[in-house]
Write a structure and sequence with these properties.
Blueprint lengths: L1 H16 L4 H12 L4 H8 L5 H40 L20 H15 L3 E2 L5 E3 H4 L19 E3 L2 E3 L5 H9 L4 E10 L10 E11 L4 H16 L4 E8 L2 E10 L18 E10 L1 H7 L7 E8 H9 L12 H4 L5
Helix pairs in contact: 1-4, 2-4, 3-4, 5-8, 5-10, 7-9
Bound molecules: adenosine-5'-[phenylalaninyl-phosphate].
The site of adenosine-5'-[phenylalaninyl-phosphate] (FA5) has 26 residues, from strand 6, strand 9, strand 10 and helix 10.
C-alpha cells in the first residue's frame, strides 16, 4: 500500500502541476480528494486494517492528502494569475482621464462646522489655543464652580437634561473655563468650542447647539482687552462693525454684558429691518470679567489676577452670516439647504 501511495502522490503532482485549465484542475481535485476520490476511498478502507497498521497508514495517507491539496492550491493560483494576465493583455487600453459614467456628489462641511473653523482660525491668530471638555458634565463644573449654587435663579435660564443628578449635559461651554484653570496656572488664553444642550425649541433655539467660549486670564487684564479681542473677532467674521456692550447678568462674570453687533442688513438704521427687528443691533453673545468667586473656586488669587470671558452661539453667528432665519434648518439635513454652503 505504501508503494501504491508513493505512486498516487507522484502521479497527482505530475497531473496537477501541468493541468492546463481550471476545469481540468477541478476534475483532478474530484478524482483525488473528492467525496469518492482515490485518496478519500483509501481513507474509508482504513477501518478494515489491523489496529497497528491502521495508525501508520492513517498518518501516511493524511500526509499524501495534505500534499495533494497543497499542489492543487498552488496550481489554482498559478492558473488564476495566468487568466488575469491574459485578460489584461487582451483588454483595450484604459483611459483614466475620461469622465466617468456616473457622477458622485461631493460632500462638504456643514455650515456650522465652517463657521466654527473660521472662528477658531481667527482666534488662533491672536494667540488663543483650543481647549475641550466633556459634554456629559458634573453639576459642579456647569453651575456650582461658576458661582451658580443650587437654587440660584440663573439656573432656570439654562435648564438642561440630567443623566442622573449631579450628572448632566452641559448647558454652555463655560465649564471648560473651570477645568482649564484648575489644570494650569495663569496666564491663560483659550477658546473652547463644542456642543451644548438646553431644554429649548423654537425658531431661534434648539436643544443641542454649539458654542465657543473665550477666556483670558493674567495680571492687569481689563474690559478694554475684552473689547479689543471681540472687535478683532467680529472684524474677521463679518468685516469691521460697531459693537455695543449692553449691561447684563451672568453669575460667573462681573460686570457682565451682552455683545451686540450693528445689524448687517440695515447697517444700524433699523428701518423696516426684519433681521434686527428694527433695532439696528444684533445680539451675538455674552461676556464679562471673570467673577472673583470663580477664581477662588479654581485656586487663583482674585487680588493678583483678572480676566475676561465670553461665550457665543455658533448657530446664531451662522444664521447672521448666511441670512438664515430658522435655526432648525441646520439640523433637518435637507441637502437643498446645506448644498448652498458647499465650496
Ligand atoms: C451663556 O451660555 C454664557 N455661558 C456665555 C458667557 C460666557 C457669558 C462667558 C459670560 C462669560 P447665553 O445663555 O446667553 O450665555 O448663551 C450664549 C449664546 O448661546 C446666546 O447668545 C445664543 O446665541 C446661544 N444660545 C443660547 N441658547 C440657545 C439655544 N437653545 N439654541 C441655540 N443657541 C442658543
Amino acid at each position: 500500500m505504501n508503494e501504491n501511495l508513493d505512486h498516487i502522490l507522484s502521479e497527482a503532482k505530475n497531473h496537477v502541476s501541468s493541468a492546463p485549465t481550471k476545469e481540468e484542475l477541478e476534475r483532478l481535485r474530484v478524482h483525488y480528494v473528492g467525496k469518492k476520490g482515490v485518496i478519500t476511498s483509501l481513507l474509508h478502507q482504513l477501518k478494515d486494517l489491523p489496529a497497528e497498521k491502521r495508525k501508520e497508514m492513517g498518518a501516511r495517507l493524511n500526509d499524501v492528502k495534505v500534499n495533494v491539496e497543497k499542489v492543487l492550491k498552488l496550481r489554482q493560483s498559478e492558473l488564476s494569475r495566468k487568466d488575469l494576465e491574459e485578460q489584461l493583455a487582451n483588454a483595450p487600453a484604459l483611459d483614466l482621464t475620461l469622465p466617468g459614467q456616473y457622477s458622485t456628489s461631493t460632500g462638504s462641511l456643514h455650515p456650522i462646522t465652517r463657521v466654527m473653523e473660521e472662528f477658531i482660525q481667527i482666534m488662533k491668530r491672536i494667540g488663543f489655543s483650543v481647549a475641550t471638555g466633556p459634554e456629559v458634565e458634573l453639576d459642579y463644573y456647569n453651575f456650582e464652580a461658576l458661582n451658580t449654587p443650587e437654587h440660584h435663579p440663573a439656573r432656570d435660564m439654562q435648564d438642561t437634561f440630567y443623566i442622573e443628578p449631579p450628572i448632566l449635559l452641559r448647558s454652555h461651554t463655560s465649564p471648560v473655563q473651570i477645568r482649564a484653570m484648575k489644570n494650569k496656572k495663569p496666564p491663560l488664553q483659550l477658546i473652547a468650542p463644542g456642543k451644548v444642550y438646553r431644554a429649548d425649541y423654537d425658531m431661534t433655539h434648539v436643544p443641542m447647539f454649539h458654542q465657543i467660549e473665550g477666556l483670558m486670564v493674567d495680571e492687569h487684564i481689563s474690559f478694554a482687552d475684552l473689547k479689543g479681542v471681540l472687535h478683532y473677532l467680529v472684524k474677521g467674521l463679518f468685516g469691521a462693525r460697531p459693537l455695543r456692550f449692553r449691561p447684563s447678568y451672568f453669575p460667573f462674570t462681573e460686570p457682565s454684558a451682552e455683545v451686540d453687533m450693528q445689524c448687517i442688513s440695515c447697517r444700524g438704521s433699523g428701518r423696516d429691518c426684519r433681521v434686527c427687528k428694527s433695532t439696528g443691533w444684533l445680539e451675538i453673545g455674552g461676556c464679562g470679567m471673570v467673577h472673583p468667586n470663580v477664581f477662588r473656586h479654581v485656586g487663583y488669587d482674585p487680588d493678583k489676577v483678572s480676566g475676561f470671558a465670553f461665550g457665543m452661539g455658533m448657530e446664531r453667528i451662522a444664521m447672521l452670516k448666511y441670512g438664515i432665519d430658522d435655526i432648525r434648518s441646520f439640523f433637518e439635513n435637507d441637502l437643498r439647504m446645506l448644498e448652498q454652503f458647499s465650496c
